[in-house]
Design goal:
Layout lengths: L2 H17 L14 E6 L18 E6 L5 E4 L2 E4 L1 H9 L4 E7 L3 H11 L6 H20 L6 H22 L8 E8 L10 E7 L5 H7 L14
Helix pairs in contact: 3-4, 4-5
Length: about 230
C-alpha cells in the first residue's frame, strides 16, 4: 500500500475520533451559512483558512481558478456546485476566494499574451477564465513585472466571478457576494494565510468598502484600484 494512503488513513482515524459527535445535528441535512468557491490549489486550505471545524457550516467548492462559471449548450451559467446550496439549502452568503500566485490565472495570462498549449481538461478551464480576464490583461498598468501582473489579475478574476454571480438571474438579490484573496506569499503585507476582502456585492473601492463596513476595515485591501 502506498505510504501516503496509509498516513492519510491514519490521520482520518484521528479525525473520526474527534468529529464523531459533531455530525449529530447535520447528518440528516444541511443548511450551511455560506458557500465558498476556492481555488483547488493544494496550498489553499479551504475550510481551515476560516478556522472551520464544524460540519455543516460551509459548503465548499474547489476548482482551478475559483470559477463560478459553467458552460452549457445554452451559454455560460452559474456552476451547479455553487448554485446548489443557494437553491436548495437557503444559503445567502457566497464567498469567492482567489489566492496570490494563482496558477490558473497565470496560465490564462500566458494563454492571452503568448498562447499556451495544455491538455484538454486544463485547456477547458482556461477557456472558461480567458473571456473574463481578457480586458484585465489589456488594462494592466505598464511596467509591471510578471508576479505583480499575475496578482493584480487574481483580484480582477475575483471581481469578474463576483460580477457573474450578481448578474445571474439564478442568484437571488438577497444573497451577499463577497470577493476575497488568500495571501500566503507576503503580497499584501499582513500575515501569511490572511484573507483580504477586495469586493462586496460589486463594490471594489477600498475607501467605499471601509466606509460601508467599518467593522472589517483592517481586512479590506487591494493591490489594484482600476
Amino acid at each position: 500500500m502506498d505510504q501516503t494512503i496509509l498516513e492519510l488513513l491514519e490521520r482520518n482515524r484521528e479525525h473520526a475520533r474527534t468529529f464523531e459527535t459533531r455530525f449529530d445535528d447535520v447528518q440528516d441535512g444541511q443548511r450551511p451559512d455560506a458557500v465558498t468557491v476556492c481555488c483547488s490549489d493544494s496550498r489553499v486550505l479551504q475550510d481551515h483558512m476560516w478556522g472551520n471545524e464544524q460540519p455543516g457550516q460551509l459548503f465548499t467548492c474547489g476548482n482551478i481558478g475559483n470559477r463560478v462559471v459553467q458552460r452549457t449548450a445554452d451559454g455560460e451559467v452559474v456552476s451547479g456546485d455553487v448554485l446548489y446550496p443557494i437553491e436548495h439549502t437557503g444559503t445567502e452568503t457566497a464567498i469567492v476566494v482567489g489566492h496570490t500566485g494563482c496558477g490558473a490565472v497565470t496560465a490564462t495570462y500566458d494563454h492571452l499574451t503568448d498562447g499556451l498549449s495544455e491538455p484538454p481538461g486544463i485547456e477547458h478551464a482556461i477557456g472558461l477564465l480567458a473571456p473574463h480576464l481578457r480586458d484585465g490583461v489589456e488594462t494592466l498598468p505598464d511596467g509591471l513585472d510578471r508576479e505583480d501582473a499575475i496578482n493584480r489579475l487574481v483580484e480582477y478574476n475575483v471581481d469578474r466571478q463576483v460580477q457573474f454571480l450578481r448578474e445571474s438571474s439564478d442568484v437571488p438579490d438577497s444573497v451577499t457576494v463577497v470577493g476575497t484573496v488568500y495571501d500566503f506569499q507576503d503580497v499584501y503585507g499582513g500575515r501569511r494565510g490572511e484573507i483580504h476582502v477586495v469586493n462586496i456585492d460589486g463594490t471594489r473601492s477600498t475607501a467605499d468598502l471601509r466606509a460601508d463596513y467599518p467593522g472589517i476595515e483592517d481586512r479590506i485591501d487591494r493591490l489594484w484600484e482600476y
